[in-house]
Amino acid sequence: MNKQNPYAISFGRIPHQYISRDVMLDDITEALENEFTDERAFKLTGIRGTGKTVMLSAVEKQLRNESEWIVCDIKPGGNITEDIVSQLYGEVPFIKEYIDTNLNLSAFGVGINISKNKTPLTLDTALKKLLLVIQKKKKRVLIVIDEVRKTDALVDFIQEFQILIREDLPIYLMIAGLYEDIDSIENTEGLTFFLRAEKYEMTPLNIAIIREDYKKTLGLDHDTAQELAVMTKGYAFAYQAFGKYMWDSDDKTINGMVLAQVDEALSQKVYNKIWRELRPQDKWFLRFIVKKDSMSVDELLAVTSKKHSEWSNPRARLIEKGIINCPSRGRISISLPRFREFVEAQED
Q: Are residues 43 and 113 in the same domain?
């Protein structure tokens, strides 16, 4: 194929060809745009490669096109309040004018003309004043933070955010993170508000939609496209990887080289990181679980000679990591595509 490959396996940007989650996108944007909503904070969670960043970017893109919204994309590791104030100063003309005229924020590297007010302010107070100005302009601010981790700065900001929304100031928060990172923040003392905030899980993509995409974009027949779509297990990164390497091969059948390239991409981009974070006990159980597409708990305990009590904690951790699921009572199956091949490679 002579055209540019529409699929991509690089994290952090929206691929040219991707499957949008329209229902989730509509739910989030409608909640944000409803001036009477009680929802001010939104959490996206899921394992690596499920499309959290793509969803964040889609929400950002839609709101940036609306004049009433100011979107601040903030890094998770810095001083969040200072970064918000600095970004508002650098990107919003009426905020820049207000700071230069009214606020002394030179200690934080923000503002130039401070002759009218030389009283230094804390950043929390400064942000509150800026939000009052934004409110008078009938605008709203969305703070977006990707790949969140529990840090003192993030905890402090969420506590400050709770005060700001209690005063009905026009600020909203949308974050994305791994299951364990979101869970760690939710269970922090004093962040009950954050625990109650709306949470969206990045569930698998629809297999039928992936099939139709592959038929249209790659020119595959129905059966081949269906087989390829099923192999992705709805995992967003695998959908991109299979699409990318099928496009590069310019083949209408699923060949060994495509599978090898997909396995390599999954390993390097996602699975190696997941594997390193697993406990030895979890890895030990996985070596038995991957032998079948699905097995009962009783069968697993029989082949491992373990008790239910010994399996319960690894089970919870593997579900949290998104590696296994239990679609029906007493059954276990692997959620991730080509994960059996990855585990077997670790044994080799």
A: yes
Do 330 and 262 fall into the same domain?
Answer: no
Q: If DSSP codes are grouped into helix, strand and coil, which group holds residue 217?
A: helix
At residue 113's C-alpha, the angle toward residues 109 and 117, to 5°, is: 95
- Please, what is the angle between helix 280-289 and helix 339-347, to 10°? 120
Q: Which of 194, 226, 188 is nearest to 207 (CA)?
A: 226
Helix, strand counts (H, E) of the chain: 17, 8
User: Same structural domain for residues 178 and 210?
Assistant: no
> Phi and psi for 335 in degrees, rounded to 5?
-85, -25
Tokens 């129905």 map to which residue?
222
Residues 151 and 189 in one domain: yes
Predicted confidence at residue 34, as pLDDT, reads 83
Q: Tell me the per-residue pLDDT of 259-303, one tens digit each, with 9 for 90 and over.
A: 999 999 999 999 999 999 999 999 999 999 999 989 999 999 999
User: End-to-end distance of the chain based on CA atoms, in angstroms?
Assistant: 36
Residue type present at position 288: F
pLDDT higher than 80, residue 311: yes
Q: Per-residue pLDDT for 237 more than 80?
A: yes
Same domain? For 48 and 77 the reply is yes
The more confidently predicted of residues 35 and 234 is 234
Cα gap 132→26, rounded to integer Å: 28
Both 50 and 141 in a single domain? yes
Contact call for residues 181 and 150 (beta carbons, < 8 A): yes
Domain that holds residue 252: 205-277
Q: Average of pLDDT values for 67-75?
A: 94
Q: At what angle do helices 297-304 and 308-320 cross, to 10 degrees?
A: 120
Give the SS3 label for residue 198. strand
Give this prediction's pTM. 0.84
| pLDDT value of residue 1 | 47
Number of structural domains in the chain:
3
